[in-house]
Every structure is written in C-alpha cells, then in structure tokens.
Amino acid sequence: MTTLSTSAILLRRIEFGDYDLIVSLFTLTQGKTSAIAKSAKKSVKRFPGVLEPFSRLNVVLAKGRGKGMPVLQEASLEDPFFRIREDIIKTAYASYWAELIYLWMAEGEPQAPLYRLTSHVLAELNRGETPVEALSILFQMRFLSLAGFRPNFDHCHACKTCLDQIRHASVVSDPSKGGIACPTCGSPTNGRLTISKGTLKQLIWTDTGDLERAARVRFTPTAISEGLKFLETFVPFHIGKSPKSLKVLRAIRHSINGRKNHDAA
Ligand SMILES: [Zn+2]
C-alpha cells in the first residue's frame, strides 16, 4: 500500500452504490486521478462538506498493489470556492472548464502549469471582480497553449499573408487548419466564423506574460462575443470531444441574455 498527499481540484463526482462516491481529481503531482470515497454519501463526519465540485483540497490517497482504484483516505479544504456554486452562471462556466480538463487529460500525467491556471481562474471566478466571460477567454486561450493546440493567428493558413498585411478588418477562423484565413481564402461557413483583427489582438494578449496581468485585459463587447464563439468552437474541435456542459452553459447564457434584453426593452 502506498499513500500520496497532494493538493487537488475536484473535477466531478458520481454516486457509487448506496454509500460511496467516485471523485475525479485534478491533482498537482499526479494529474487526473479517480478515487473512491467510501461512505462519503452516508457519513457526514468522514468528509464534512468538502467533496464539492471545484473545491481545492488537500487529499491523502491510498493505493494497493493491484489495479484497483485509489481510496480517498482524507480530504481537507484548501479553498472551498463556495461562491462559484451559489451562482448559476459561474457554476456553468466552471463546469465547462472542469469538463475540458477531464476530457483532455490522461490519468497519472502531472500538468502543474495547467493546475496553476485552473486554480487561478477558479479563485478569480469565486472573487467575482473579473467578468466571467474574460476569465473563460483567458482559461481557454492558455489551455490551448498548454495542451499544444495554440491557434496560429500570425498569418492566413492558405496564402500565408501576415495578419497585419491583410487589408480587411476581419478574417475567418478555421479550426481544422488550426488558425485563420484571409477573406480571399476562406468564407464563414461550416463552423468557420468571422472574427475581427481587433479581437485576435486581444486574444493574443491573454496568452502573453504573467497571469495576473493577462487577467486584467479589458475586452470590448465585440471581443467578448467573438472570442467566446471562436474558442467554444476551436477548443472542442481540438480535443476531439463535445463537452455536455457547453450545451448547458450556452442555454443558461441565452436565457440570462434574453432576460436582460427583455428588461432593457
Ligand atoms: Zn489568404
């Protein structure tokens, strides 16, 4: 039997039988790990209110010699990030980020820079001083870079004209080519979107320099709208899976925006 003590973010939990939970953890030292939390459903004493989605924990995992799932022996809160779970839109964004990590990561491969990024955006989401949309752009841009899918905004993928030399205000995104096309080489159909050069510059800033500074990028409303549309197409394309939580996020965002427009009218 070996034990491991590490910081971890709780990505998801599912009920297992009448008493237990299976938790998927993003651990700092071992990457993604699933573990069984015995009696977690029945006994509040064992894990009192700590196994909540997006919480940052310190966990002790025990693993036998066989192929069995590690057992969660102890879990204590480093930060509950409880304000995320009190807000439906914050919960929807955090669920989407957690699912992207869950879908992309392999078990047992440490991803310390991605752990720091996730911890940072969850803390900011919980604090509530940065707009949620800006955090989602920051997370997805940096996730793409760390996962090796950084979009190429330098030039048109077909004719190689540099972004600054393209004589139009907008270009066309092309996830299948990993970047953008000039309006002569590409047209906005089949998942390809029109995106302004101004938006691309703001997206590039979020992926440059330190996190604190990048989180202070002030997006224009156009950049928020175009940036989210672009990333929510580009990221699922490159991880090769469509996150269920993205559908939920879009539906919630749609109903909230609909209500705002109704109130303003
Ligand atoms: Zn071109």
Written overview of the protein:
With 265 residues, the protein is an alpha+beta fold. It folds into two domains: 2-80, Nucleic acid-binding proteins (OB fold (Dihydrolipoamide Acetyltransferase, E2P), Beta Barrel); 85-264, de novo design (two linked rop proteins). The protein contains eight helices and nine strands. It has helices at residues 82-85, 88-104, 112-127, 132-146, 197-206, 211-214, 221-239, 244-264, and strands at residues 2-16, 20-27, 31-37, 56-63, 71-79, 152-156, 170-174, 179-181, 194-196. The strands form two sheets. A five-stranded antiparallel beta sheet has the order 3-2-1-4-5. It has a four-stranded mixed beta sheet with strand order 6-8-7-9. Strand 4 (56-63) and strand 5 form a beta hairpin. Helix 2 (88-104) packs antiparallel against helix 8. The longest helix is centred in the last third of the chain and has 21 residues, at 244-264. It is elongated, with a radius of gyration of 20 Å. The relative contact order is 0.11. The mean pLDDT is 93. Zinc ion is lined by residues 156, 158-159, 161, 181-182, 184-185. Zinc ion binds at residues 156, 158-159, 161, 181-182, 184-185.
The CATH top-level class label of the largest domain: Mainly Alpha
Order of helices and strands, N to C? EEEEEHHHHEEEEHHHH
Query: Would you tell me the overall average pLDDT?
Result: 93
* Tally of helical segments: 8
Helix content: 40-55%
Structural class of the secondary structure composition? Answer: alpha+beta
Radius of gyration: 20 Å
> Mind telling me which CATH architecture of the largest domain this is?
Up-down Bundle
How many domains? The number is: 2
* Uncertain stretches: none
